[in-house]
Amino acid sequence: MWKYMLKRSLSMVITLWLIATLTFVIMHLIPGDPFATEARMLPEEVVQNMRERYHLDKPLIEQYVQYMNGLIHLDLGPSIQQKSQDVTTLIQSGFPASAVLGLQSLVIALTGGIALGVVAALFHNRLMDYAAMFFAILGISVPSFILAPLLIKYFAVKWELLPVASWDGWEYSVLPSVALAIGPLAIIARFVRTSMIEVFDQDYMSTAEAKGLSTFHIVFRHGIRNAILPVITFIGPLFANLITGTFVVEKIFAIPGIGKYFVESIFNRDYPVILGTSVFYSAVLILTLFVTDILYRFVDPRIKLANGGE
Amino acid sequence: MTNVLEVEDLHVSFRAYGGEIQAVRGVSFAVRPGETLAIVGESGCGKSVTARAILGMVKAPRGRVKKGSVRLQGRELSCLGKKELQQVRGAQIGMIFQDPMTSLNPTMKIGTQIAEVLIKHQKLAKKQAREKAIELLAAVGIPEPARRYEQYPHECSGGMRQRIVIAIALACDPELIIADEPTTALDVTIQAQILALLNDLQRTKGTSIIMITHDLGVVAEVADQMAVMYAGIIVEQGPVEEIFDNPQHPYTKGLLQSVPRLDQPSEERLIPIQGAPPDLFAPPAGCPFAARCDHAMEVCAQYMPKSTAFSAQHQAKCWLHDRRAHRVEELVSAGREQHV
């Protein structure tokens, strides 16, 4: 187990380095640079000065070495667009809001998705199943930029149940969490339904039934654990996506998260922010995948980690 | 002596595309205390469905018990509610399934799978259930039961897993155990061990067993009574020795002839039964075996034969035994006359 962990950690570092390098190269391949707009209005010397300030005048390879050196010391460099802020501070100040939002919607998506999927599977090919799957299809196909304004219109404006457009407490996070959760919830529901129907057909479910156990016990003690594996596969990347913020939902609900940097940094050619957000997202994703792999082993005892030495 | 189980005129059907499959079409039998009844038949003859129907486990909404009565120690089961049935399953009737590789939950500890029956039916606390489960593991011949308790099914061999399944079925000392082809998925030496184990447990606990199988060797080894099923009906039933010595239904005869015997000269060829069983979407009005039967008469295809009794317990459904049918001896002599 420890040997596996060590090996995995090493490969995670290498993966992260490869991603940072690739992002660096691709980023510089995009035409334009951070001062494209300024260059048209300001004198040549001023632009030159600014480029020097951010070391953009140096050869690429030198910039790369410098960036990597900073990365090792967890210094992601200064943002070009956000004056006098460095990328590490940007992420530090925005991440908590994104993470809270992401975690809440993950919880909503998981509980709602599993419940909906189980109900659909229990009533396979009956009205409840069709209703649940209709809802799931709706959830998958309605994009969050339509769902979010609808939620605001009814829950915040018309019925005045929940506040929006600020980030001053828990009640402000409810609607955006829901808006963020519906899509993944629907996908999870479909996953759970499919694998649960499969599990219901297994012999061990008949054994459980022949033991005289209650339906609830059969479904939740015997069924869920076997049906959840495909969902765990999906949760890994989903978790990383949700907690690193989303552009649309954070924008609509005016949440001070980090979702916007992913998109805006590319428009602005804000090189350090592009790199910083990419590296940050990748790090979260790689870590989650690592955790899911370990989780598999706990859910299904038949799965042995490679070189687990057990 | 009251019967442990009485099944009367059981009908089970399944809805499918284009009609209804009549899997079980009027089956009646009884199981006496401490006795083993073997239900024999080829694949798809309705034996497993019969077993599931006894436990009220025919899969809804497609499958349905259409008619019939199942009485456990005189108590009617077919009209019980879900909760009451759950009290019967696992407590009064234990079930052993065919394939031990798939009939245990792969993500649950072996011990927990046994203990949960005890917790449910005997209301034991976790700790007592654990102790009792370890005892049960030992009773079905599993070495180091305390260590096995903590293991998962994939860490055990097939034979060991079937022993665990038996331990689960036995956990609450049921009056009846239904074993649905318990040895089919095991290799021959393990088969013998499992059958011996079942025999032993039956002798010590006095449990009745319904053994569902297509293996006449298993029947000869463990059963007291047997019922031969074909296309959803029981064509012949009675004490095992009587049927083996003196089969009355052509299908039973065919089955016995298609099995190799030790007392048979090895150069003698086995006689297979030609053809295939009828389609249960539209079962024939008459005897389902008529199309494959060497002795079929006109009446066989048109009317279902009545039961003929040959002794107190031995009976078969065949027109050949009808009063009005030509006796076999007559036919044989008539054939001789023609040939001369």
How would you describe what is shown here?
The complex is a heterodimer of chains A (310) and B (340). With 310 residues, chain A is an all-alpha fold. Chain A has a domain at 91-299: MetI-like fold. Chain A has helices at residues 2-29, 36-41, 44-53, 60-72, 87-122, 127-141, 144-158, 170-200, 203-210, 215-227, 229-243, 247-252, 259-267, 271-299. In chain A, α8 runs antiparallel to α11 (229-243) and α11 (229-243) runs antiparallel to α14 (271-299). Chain A is globular, with a radius of gyration of 24 Å. The N and C termini of chain A lie close together (7 Å). With 340 residues, chain B is of the alpha/beta class. Chain B is built from twelve helices and twelve strands. In chain B, the strands form two sheets. In chain B, strands 6-7-8-3-9-10-12-11 form an eight-stranded mixed sheet, sandwiched between helices. The radius of gyration of chain B is 22 Å and the shape is globular. Chain B starts with a strand and ends with a helix. The model of chain B has no long low-confidence stretch (mean pLDDT 86). The chains are: A mainly alpha (310), B alpha/beta (340). The A-B interface holds A 126, 202-204, 206-215, 217, 221-222, 225-226, 299-302 and B 55, 57, 61, 82, 85-91, 94-95, 97-99, 102-108, 116-117, 120-121, 152, 154, 165, 168.
Segments of chain A where pLDDT lies below 50 for 5+ residues?
Answer: none
What multimeric state do the chains show?
heterodimer
Question: Which chains share the greatest interface?
Answer: A-B, 23 and 31 residues
General form of chain B: globular
> What is the annotated CATH architecture of the domain at 91-299 in chain A?
Orthogonal Bundle
What's the CATH topology name of the domain at 91-299 in chain A?
Answer: MetI-like fold
Q: How would you characterize the largest beta sheet of chain B? A: 8 strands, mixed
Instruction: State the share of residues found in helices of chain A, binned by percent.
Output: over 70%
Number of helices of chain A: 14
CATH superfamily of the domain at 91-299 in chain A: MetI-like
For this structure, what is the CATH class of the domain at 91-299 in chain A? Mainly Alpha
Average pLDDT of chain A works out at 83
Mean pLDDT score of chain B, rounded? 86
Distance between the termini of chain B: 56 Å
Helical fraction of chain B: 25-40%
Shape of chain A: globular
Total strand count of chain A, please? Answer: 0
Indicate the proportion of strand residues of chain A.
Answer: under 5%
Protein name (chain B): ABC transporter ATP-binding protein
GO molecular function (chain B): ATP binding; ATP hydrolysis activity
InterPro entries (chain B): AAA+_ATPase (IPR003593), ABC_Ni/Peptide_Import (IPR050388), ABC_transporter-like_ATP-bd (IPR003439), ABC_transporter-like_CS (IPR017871), Oligopep_ABC_C (IPR013563), P-loop_NTPase (IPR027417)
Pfam family, one (chain B): oligo_HPY
